[in-house]
Write a structure and sequence with these properties.
It is a single chain. The protein is built from 12 helices and 9 strands. The chain is α/β, with parallel strands linked by helices and 283 residues long. It has 2 domains: 181 residues, Rossmann fold (3-Layer(aba) Sandwich), CATH 3.40.50; 69 residues, rRNA adenine dimethylase, C-terminal domain (Helicase, Ruva Protein, domain 3, Orthogonal Bundle). Helix 6 packs across helix 8, helix 9 packs across helix 12 and helix 11 packs across helix 12.
């Protein structure tokens, strides 16, 4: 058995199987029992709920959720860890999906929409995974993710701050985003070089319905492309893209919403972005 609170125990287990944590897959095990307990609490799991876990690793969180009575689907990319999960988590309520979650989750969603989703997400893939759920309008009622501290701050950032970005707008227009707290490197084995952060997402249209989501995302991402430039200058740059709206239509939309084109994208609130994109969509 593995003591999931002990780096020595985890290291001994990995050595016994001639394994090592793989950086490219973000294999940093959460050894802080208080943090694991907090994440389980934030999920608000009730018996027989369908719960997804992305990147279960050696199964510390998985075991806790099965004990809580969840019907659990875990997505694991590492074949060696998949073998261990099959050995250690024997339960009729356990479903293991092997491979890259970005290639498998949509099929699983069609089979059974989850009530909850959690994941200790690899730093190099976290934004892609979260964006995929939001952009496809497929967020579970509660999602709890552990991400790099910098990304967590971007997800909750307010307009006019250095962390506010197009990703902030995407997250905040598709969900209610709550900061679940910071985790120090020592909460993990191996310890990463930076802090991590827990974020909680609830699907919610905080700033009204977006009429044309692809158009909305194109406008926001394009006008954040050069942060130091004004909206007016970024509109000119973005207009080189044939898919981008006509300059005058977009400028009229900003003016109609009382947004001066001398402002920068980082000062425009999520609600203002929604209003502008909806105006552009109506022509």
């Amino acid at each position: 058995m593995i003591n999931h609170d002990s780096p020595a125990s985890i290291r001994a287990f990995l050595d016994s199987r001639e394994l090592a944590p793989r950086k490219r897959w973000g294999q940093n095990f959460l050894i802080n029992p208080g943090a694991r307990k907090k994440i389980i609490s934030l999920l608000e799991i009730k018996r027989d709920m369908d719960v997804w876990e992305i990147g279960p690793g050696l199964g510390a969180m998985s075991a806790d959720m099965l004990k809580a009575g969840a019907s659990l689907t875990v997505f694991e990319i590492d074949p060696a860890y998949c073998l261990w999960l099959k050995e250690s988590l024997i339960s009729p309520k356990m479903n293991l999906v092997e491979g890259d979650v970005m290639k498998t989750w949509r099929k699983e969603w069609e089979i059974q929409k989850p009530d909850r989703v959690l994941g200790n997400l690899p730093y190099n893939a976290a934004s892609v995974i979260i964006a995929a759920f939001i952009e496809s309008d497929r967020l579970a009622d509660i999602c709890v993710f552990t991400v790099q501290d910098e990304m967590g701050k971007r997800m909750t950032a307010k307009p006019g701050t250095k962390d506010y970005s197009s990703f902030s707008v995407l997250c905040q227009t598709g969900a209610r985003v709550k900061d679940g707290g910071r985790l120090s490197p020592g909460s993990f084995y191996p310890a990463p070089r930076v802090n991590s952060r827990i974020v909680v997402l609830h699907p919610e249209e905080n700033f009204g319905s977006i009429d044309n989501p692809p158009l909305f995302r194109l406008i926001v991402r394009s006008l954040f492309s050069s942060r130091r430039k004004t909206l007016s200058n970024n509109i000119i740059l973005a207009s080189r893209n044939k898919e981008f709206p006509e300059q005058e239509i977009l400028k009229d939309a900003f003016n109609s919403e009382g947004i001066e084109l001398t402002r920068r994208a980082e000062t425009v609130s999520p609600g203002e972005w929604v209003a502008v994109a909806n105006r552009v969509g109506k022509g």
